[in-house]
Fold this protein.
Amino acid sequence: MDFINAIVLLLNYIFVPALSYGSQLALGAIFVSLIYGILRFAYFTAGDLMSFGTMFTILFTWYFQSLGISLGIFPTALIAIPFGIVVTIFYVLIKDKLVFSYYRFKKSPPVMLAMVSIGTMFVTQAIVRIIIGPFDRRFFDGEKFILKANEFKEMTGLNEGLTIKSTQVITLFVTIVVVSILFWFLNKTKTGKSMRAYSDNEDLALLSGIDPKKVVMITWIIAAILATIGGTLYGLDKSFKPFTYFNNMLPIFAAAIVGGIGNPFGAFLGGYVIAFSEILVTYAYRKFFIYLLPESIEPDSLLQLLSTDYKFAVSFSILVVVLLFRPSGIFKGKVL
Amino acid sequence: MRKNLDVISAYAIMFGLIIVVGFLQSWSIALSILCFCLISAVMTMGANIQWGYAGLINFGIMGYTALGGLAAVLVSVPPVKEAWQVGGFNMILCALLIALMVFSVRFIIKKYNKSKKRNYGIALVIIMGLILLRLISGPAIESIEAVNPATTGFLGGMGFPILFSWIVGAFFAGALAYVIGKIALGLRADYLAIATLLISEIVIAVVKHEDWLSRGVKNVIGLKRPVPYEIDLQTKEWFINLVAKFNQGTLNLITDALAKEQMLKQLVIEGSTVFVKLCFVGLFSIVVIILLIITQKALYSPWGRMMRAIRDNEEAANAMGKNVVKQHLLIFVLGSAIVGIAGAMMVTYDGLFTPGSYRPMRYTFLIWVMVIVGGSGNNFGAVLGGFAVWFLWIEAAPIALFLINFFTSGLAETNALKVHLIESIPYFRYLMMGIGLLLIMRYRPKGILPEKIKHV
């Protein structure tokens, strides 16, 4: 019994939260990785693009709520996502036309493009803050829990409860669907294959008649879709605050690099690596060992490897270690 | 004279703008803008050395700034004797342990060839060391933080004058840069950018949460100033006389003796803040001028030419027998040390150290905007960038207010759009920075004052 209690404890405090946080990071990391592979620069606007998409999703959610439309037990934001995506796609395409295409045409070094993306980061941040303000916003409605701790305890008769929020299930489900469609697209369709070819060897791809404009456009569209979905899921699960989204850029980059930047599948796994390590290292294992060990050698300290204050620092340290020993990432970058 | 016309005119416009602020708003505001302009200029010079001279991207500026600030605390705060008594010995032991770890890892790396076994050995040393550190430091940290937590709760500093911290800050930042450089300098440009950005976040996390060292988010306030305090000045005979002398014209107009005294009192209070800020401006200007002279000399020395050669063609420079790795590390350390000075200067000016306020937007990306806008590779350009961007950053709000009022002048005061726009004025500065950066990068990619290379 104690053993099952210990397992449930870990599931409740580590596995479930890390899985949903990891999915949200993974969606971000995939598009950062795609942009790095195809457009060949580090896209510093990543976090703010997510907040841009989320902002429009929230605005549409409010609009639908005012009309009285809702999805019952599901959050209204789910119907608003497609509208948010459309606006975000327009935004990235306009941005590409006005800003990035010039440098691509001039074949500027990647560093230059990264700097330009810092410029667009400032602008995006300003737009988001001017439209919706810098404050914390919750836009979740519908049924909050799928499984409550008390219900679980009654059901199983265990001491430990297991809570599953509906947002966590939605996150996981949406992530699986989106990522499978994306990998099917990249691996099976002609456009997807041309994108991979372009990322692999630009000159060769041009020689074989691949239209670079189309490849670039599709990359931006995928980026906008993933950013809006990932951002909205994060916002549903926690809350929407532009500053937090900007900060999320850092673990997203860490995930993309750990997974091997330029490699979307690696980035996808990298998201989970970062999320799990953040939570595993900062969790206090005291209760876990109390269940497992006999009473005589029960621990009295918290058994926490690092305090939760160092959550971000953990993922960045992993990144440093990866950069030191495997600069191309755990899953070998630049293969797409 | 002729060939420096652009530099002179750009600086004239900049100082003109600051003087305009002095007349329109107040001299106190103008001088505090000038102080922060000077601090920003030091930071941009540090970043410019790395980016302009050597082409290294360092997005870790925030981390070095915070370390400089930490240096100001550790140098100027008097030591907390009680805390040293309860935990000092253990903390010194920890420092020795860290040194021992570093040396044993170095020893293993030197002694054994690259192999899996060696990596495991290093990992073992580090893990054992960390466990020992936790065991030794844990109780010590607890007892240190328990010492009078409302005011101290940390080890304190050395109790030296705060001006020393400007040098110590440089050493702190330089040491950190040495470690980071050893780890990350081999990376490609954009990887280096991301790695340094993330490492600077780690530094901030440490400064924020190691309360025994820096009081963390509880902040350290009331750091000693290198210049006189306003309150002391207001009672000093010579200062009151000085103010009276300066304002003779206005004072003579008032005939009533009581009103005259009141007026003088008011003027003394205003004058004291201006005087304090002027002192700071003087101190900061000395730093900026010294650094400008050194960096200019370095830029046109054989070493500077070598750095440019490495930047423009690494392989060729390597083939000519220049040690590219070593030079990169050197310039990385130098640039970061300069940023560390700026960090210490800023804490000196504020008189307080607030680890919670270090954010990448303000301390990393804004500094980069300054470097790019000013002109990378040109020290005068970098300084000008620091001035111009900081000025815009502060004055963005009044400018935005004016523009919003101008464009919405047809709307009623209570119009929802107008009210919303006026509420979000603080965020227009981001918009201005972003658009400014994009425009400069597009139409003047080398900055306002581009790099000029003298050919003999």
Remarks:
- Strands of chain A lie at 145-147, 164-165.
- The longest helix of chain A spans residues 2-38.
